[in-house]
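[agent] plan:
  1. take the single chain provided in the ticket
  2. run structure prediction with default settings
  3. attach structure tokens to the ticket
  4. add a short note for the reviewer (M.T.)
[agent] executing step 1
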Amino acid sequence: SESHRLPSMVLELLKGLCCRRRQSRSCLPGAPAALIAAWGNEASQEEAERWQKLLADGYFEILEGRLERLEEGYRAAKDIKKGDALLFDSAFCSSKIDESVSKRLLRECERKKHLPSFAEKAEPAYNGDPFGNVSSLGSVMSLPAGRYTDVSAKGDKSLESILADNARECSREPNFVALFVEVAHFTHSCCPNAFVDSSRSQAVVRALKDISAGEVVAVSYIPVSLPLTARRSRLGKGLHCTCRRCKEEELN
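[agent] step 2 finished; step 3 output follows
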């Protein structure tokens, strides 16, 4: 009878809710130890909720002091080993890839304009304090634009152009794109020494090879398997890569 089926239906619903909760609280390999601990079985509800809010606000962290932020990009602050996790970042916004992706990303950013943590005057901190390392709208608007969209000679940038240039496909969820503000500051190379491991909500930048202290850390904005002409087309007219690989392929 219907009354006998109801308990099993409720159990299935609860099971689904629990599965979604575990998925939303999963961490990428290399995520901050404090975050992993906060989402562990022994963590308090208060600590878990604190981290949930931080991630929603755009939390990031340079891991183990391995990176130094430059005016454009990052460099290694110390010798780095292949496989080391360098930076953790949470998504400012994300969307499924479909015909409405641009509108959805823009709508999510516009909604966050009204949150205190995204005030234009807010400045991100690099001191390891979780309440300081939050991306602001000011940091979003400082991202480069013009690779795919026209930017005026005055340097005016719209949120649409910034999203078009900096929201990238998620490696673990290729049907989604996300904007990771701090990850977007890494420079591009077609022969990168680091890569971005990302879901729709989190990203970890990891070293592809040993990197010496003082060396620029670069990632690829596009699939490195593409030939030269395809890579340049994907990068857009506003970015011309001059890495060793591109120069060698130009000569051949």
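[agent] step 4 note for reviewer: The helical segments are 2-24, 33-38, 45-56, 101-112, 137-141, 159-166, 228-235, 244-251.
[agent] ticket updated
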